[in-house]
Recover the amino acids of this structure.
């Protein structure tokens, strides 16, 4: 654990909250501008989040403001620290990367706040940054150690070969990946994801995370990827990844996964390609505890884009505890109600709340509007935070956990 922050540092950080509230986005935009002058640092970030709308700078501005507001009581941020550490491990973030962020952040504060960024203020923010950085570095080191020590585990990037490609729908393909070295793989927790490093002609170096869509095993992973309209990596995978293609892969990571020790009823709720971690969970439940009360609820636009429909039905047929409900927002002409889908419209929190036992644990993944509606709706109906679990790959300013957060002055 890093040394506690001094009382003087805490007071100075709290005093900067009004300035951060007003100028936080300008500071983080400047910080990224400075960091990305170094190509080795720029490649660590998902550049699709550095868009004209400033999604990633907004997310970081919110995180910095939250850190400043809670600097005297960081317990509420423990979950965020774990999420960040897991994301960093999937992207192979190392201790030597942290000084680059510190330098850019402090320079950005000075550039934006000018004379208001006194030497004392900058020193306080330097101390506060390194306090958090050391927490993350320590946690990440523990995760790396555990992964390296696990059977089939590794650190850094490992070559995997595409073994099989399956077209799951008009927009989603599954890729089964096996180690190029012929070895085994570490068993993931159902719901976790893999990190990938790409270096593509015309695109350059990029990093991405994709959820694992199969149950844990010793031999292979499967990812199921949606072709996104502007997705440089997803389009490349759909157009060029074939059996034999080599991909560079980091070991499984993520804090969103099925609790193997729990016997509580579970609802697996997904929208679109958000079904990928849910399939991993469902396969696990069917194999290990088929009697466990499990409610699979999935929303898709229509049958043309609905992936893994028959696979899920086959799993349901094998497990007496599993029941399913499928929603199509805009059924296609050939979609048959009661056969291809169960309900027309959107998955709602009210439907979920009415169809599960009171002690159900919800696992949710899907597009941002879907996540906000389901998580926010369930919270509004009184479902406590500890029974709402979700995976989210977007910038943190749109994270569904915001429904539980209360702004403090």
């Amino acid at each position: 654990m890093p040394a506690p922050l001094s009382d003087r540092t805490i007071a100075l950080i709290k005093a900067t909250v009004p300035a951060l509230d007003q100028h936080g986005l300008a500071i983080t935009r400047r910080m990224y501008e400075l960091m990305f002058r170094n190509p080795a640092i720029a490649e660590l970030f998902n550049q699709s989040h550095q868009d004209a709308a400033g999604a990633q700078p907004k997310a970081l501005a919110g995180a910095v403001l939250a850190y400043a507001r809670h600097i005297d009581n960081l317990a509420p941020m423990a979950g965020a620290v774990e999420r960040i550490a897991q994301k960093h491990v999937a992207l192979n973030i190392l201790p030597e990367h942290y000084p680059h962020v510190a330098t850019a952040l402090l320079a950005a504060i000075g550039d934006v706040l000018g004379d208001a960024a006194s030497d004392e203020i900058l020193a306080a923010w330097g101390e506060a940054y390194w306090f958090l950085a050391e927490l993350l570095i320590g946690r990440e080191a523990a995760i790396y150690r555990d992964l390296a020590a696990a059977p089939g585990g590794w650190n850094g990037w490992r070559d995997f070969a595409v073994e099989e490609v399956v077209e799951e729908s008009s927009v989603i393909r599954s890729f089964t990946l096996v180690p190029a070295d012929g070895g085994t793989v570490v068993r993931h927790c159902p719901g976790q994801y893999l990190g990938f490093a790409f270096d593509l002609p015309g695109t350059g170096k990029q990093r991405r995370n994709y959820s694992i869509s199969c149950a844990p095993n010793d031999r292979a992973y499967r990812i199921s990827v949606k072709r996104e309209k502007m997705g440089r990596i997803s389009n490349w995978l759909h157009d060029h990844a074939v059996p034999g293609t080599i991909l560079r892969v980091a070991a499984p990571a993520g804090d969103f996964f099925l609790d193997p020790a729990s016997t509580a009823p579970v609802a697996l709720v997904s929208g679109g390609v958000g079904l990928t971690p849910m399939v991993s969970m469902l396969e696990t439940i069917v194999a290990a505890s088929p009697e466990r009360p499990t409610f699979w609820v999935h929303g898709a636009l229509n049958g043309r884009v609905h992936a893994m429909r028959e696979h899920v039905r086959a799993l349901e047929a094998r497990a007496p505890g599993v029941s399913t409900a499928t929603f199509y927002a805009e059924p296609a002409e050939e979609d048959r109600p009661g056969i291809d889908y169960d309900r027309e419209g959107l998955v709602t929190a009210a439907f979920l709340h009415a169809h599960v036992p009171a002690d159900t644990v919800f696992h949710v993944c899907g597009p941002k509007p879907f996540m906000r509606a389901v998580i926010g709706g369930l919270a509004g109906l009184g479902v406590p935070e500890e029974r709402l679990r979700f995976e989210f790959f977007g910038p943190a300013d749109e994270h569904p956990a915001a429904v539980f957060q209360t702004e403090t002055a």
About this structure: The chain has twelve helices and twelve strands. The CA atoms of residues 156 and 358 lie 42 Å apart. The two ends are 28 Å apart (CA to CA). The first helix runs from residue 7 to 15.
